[in-house]
Every structure is written in C-alpha cells, then in structure tokens.
Amino acid sequence: MTGNHPGRQSSAAELLTVQLLAWLAARPRSYADTMDAWRSTCPRLSIWEDALGDGLVALQSGGAHGMRETRVVLTDEGWAKLAAGEGLVASAERLRA
Question: What's the pTM?
C-alpha cells in the first residue's frame, strides 16, 4: 500500500470496507465497540469514515442512553456491498494462504 501503487491501496481499502461490513453484520455492535475497533487517525485509511459517508452504515439511536447504546447497522447499500464483496475477501484470503 504505497503511494507508488494507488490501485493496491484502493483494493486494500475495498477489502477493509468489506471486512468492516462483515464484522458489523456478524452481531449487533455499539458505536463504542465500532470506534474501539475501527477508528483510525491515518488519513489514508479512513474505512469507518468512508463507510459512514458512503451510506453503507447508519447509527440507530440509543434512546436515553445516548451514544453509549447507539447501534451501528448496515444500510441496504451496505448489505449489497457486503454481498458483492464477499468473493473479494475469499479471493484475498486464498492468495494470502
């Protein structure tokens, strides 16, 4: 993932986005859990921020408990991206093995 290989960075970001979506789909996740696992200070690796901005994930209100109980859920677009990207993740894992 170097500046000399922008396609690799895009592919890596795609894979990480699909991994984020799969992680969220596996079980209910709170906003706090998601931030602990996926927040990044690297401007080249903004998986969480991009997924939120692209409408792949949404926040469901935690009611009176505020952000502590807010849930992160996949949108319809997120479910579609996950379904389309599952083969991409499987291919990458086979290459890595």
Answer: 0.76
End-to-end CA distance of the chain: 19
* Residue 47: partners with Cβ closer than 8 Å, 6 or more residues away: 13, 16, 17, 20, 38, 40
pLDDT tens for each residue of 8-24: 445 888 889 999 999 99
Question: Helix (H, G, I), strand (E, B), or coil: what is residue 74?
Answer: strand
SS3 of residue 46 by DSSP: coil
Q: Alpha carbon of 67 to those of 21, 57, 62, 70, 87: distances in Å? A: 20, 15, 6, 5, 33
Distance of CA 18 to the CA centre of its chain: 6
Cα–chain center distance at 9: 15
List of domains in the chain = 6-96 (1.10.10.10)
